[in-house]
Amino acid sequence: MKIGDFIPQIILLGPTGAERMLSEQRVAGHPVVLMAFRRPGLSAIGQELDKLRELAAKFAEADSIVIALTQDAPAQNAALITARKLPFEVWADPTGILLDALGIARDEKSWAIAVIEPNGRLHAVLKPGSGRPAVQALSLAKKLHEATRPELIKAQAPILLIPEVFDTAMCRRLIEVWDGGRKRINEVAVQGLNEATYESAARERIKRRADVLIEETDPLNLEIRDLFLKRIVPEMDKAFQCPIRSYQTLRIGCYEASNAGAFGPHRDEVGDPRDPRLFAVSINLNDDFTGCELNFPEYGRQVYRPPAGGAAVFSCKLLHEVYPVRTGRRFTLLTFIH
C-alpha cells in the first residue's frame, strides 16, 4: 500500500472483542493516528505509546482519533490499556492483513505510526528513526483538521473532488508524453439524432485544446488504471453508488494561453447510447497557470480547480465549461467512465 491509497476496510477487534472498522461512523470523518505493531514487548513501542498518551489532549483538540493496532488477542490489548493507562483503544488485527499492508514486519521489533485522512486515505507512515513519530503525527493531524473550515455552502455542483490521485512524478511523465505525442486539435465528439457517431469534429469556436491519446496497449495506461482502482473508484462507489465497468481511451489535454484555450458550455453525454458515458474524470497535472477553471452554470458561478494530481469527477449530464487560460498552459488527463 502506498501513500494516497485507501486503507483496506477489514474487520478488526476492539479490546472487548467487538468487531470494529476504521470506516465506522465513530471513526470515519476524523484524522486517525494508528500506531501499528505486532506485540508490545519492545521498550521503544511502550515509550511511543506513552508519548501518544501524553499528547492525547492535543490530538483531541485536532479532532483526531488515536488507536493502537496489534496482532494480540483483545484480552491482551485490554490488559495493555490498563497497564499503560492509555486513554485510547487498542484494536486487534488477528490475521495481520492490515499490519502487512502498512509494512509492519512479522517480528516484535517493527512498528510505525500511520496517519489516515478523514476519508480513509493513507496520508503518511512514520517509522522509528524518522525523528519523533508521535509529535510528527500530531503535526500532520492538525494540518488535516485545519485544511477545511466550517462554511455555509449556499450552492454546490454535485461533483466529487479527489486530491492526490497522481503524484508529482506521474504528472511530469504525462506532460512529457504530451510533449512528444501526436496532437489532436480541438476535437469535439458529435452525435446525430437517436444514433451515435464515432467521428470527432474540430470546432475551434467551442473548444481550444490539443490532446494526445494514451492507447490501451500502452503500459502507462495500465499504471493509470491501477491508480484509478485504488484512488478514484472507491470514492465514486461511496459518493455515487454506481457500478463502474470501464473507461474510454485516456487523453492528455493542454489548454494554452496563446490561443485563449477553453471549452465552452457543453455536456459530455454523447457517444454510443447502448454504452453511455456516465461520468467525466479530469485530473489536473500542473499548477503554474491562471484561469482555466471549471464551472457548472446550472448550479451557480462557483469555479473549481483541483490542485496538481487532483481529480474532478462529475456526471456527463451536467452542463459545464472550462474558462479561458489567462497565463501559461494547463495540462489535464481526461476520460469518461462507463
Question: How would you characterize this protein structure?
Answer:
- The model is unreliable at 192-198 (pLDDT under 50).
- The protein is elongated.
- It has 2 domains: 12-146, 3-Layer(aba) Sandwich (Glutaredoxin); 160-337, q2cbj1_9rhob like domain (Jelly Rolls, Sandwich).
- By secondary structure, it is of the alpha+beta class.
- Helix content is 25%, strand content 30%.
- It starts with 11 loop residues before the first strand and ends with a strand.
- It is built from 7 helices and 21 strands.
- Strands 8, 9, 12, 13, 15, 16, 19 and 21 form an 8-stranded antiparallel sheet that branches.
- The longest helix is centred in the C-terminal third of the chain and has 22 residues, at 219-240.
CATH class of the largest domain: Mainly Beta
Portion of residues in helices? 10-25%
According to CATH, the fold-level topology of the largest domain is Jelly Rolls
Total beta strand runs: 21
The fraction of residues in strands falls at 25-35%
How large is the count of helical segments? 7
N- to C-terminal distance: 27 Å
> Could you say which structural class the secondary elements and strand pairing correspond to?
alpha+beta
Shape: elongated
The radius of gyration over CA amounts to: 23 Å
Overall tally of domains: 2
Low-confidence stretches: 192-198
CATH superfamily of the largest domain: q2cbj1_9rhob like domain
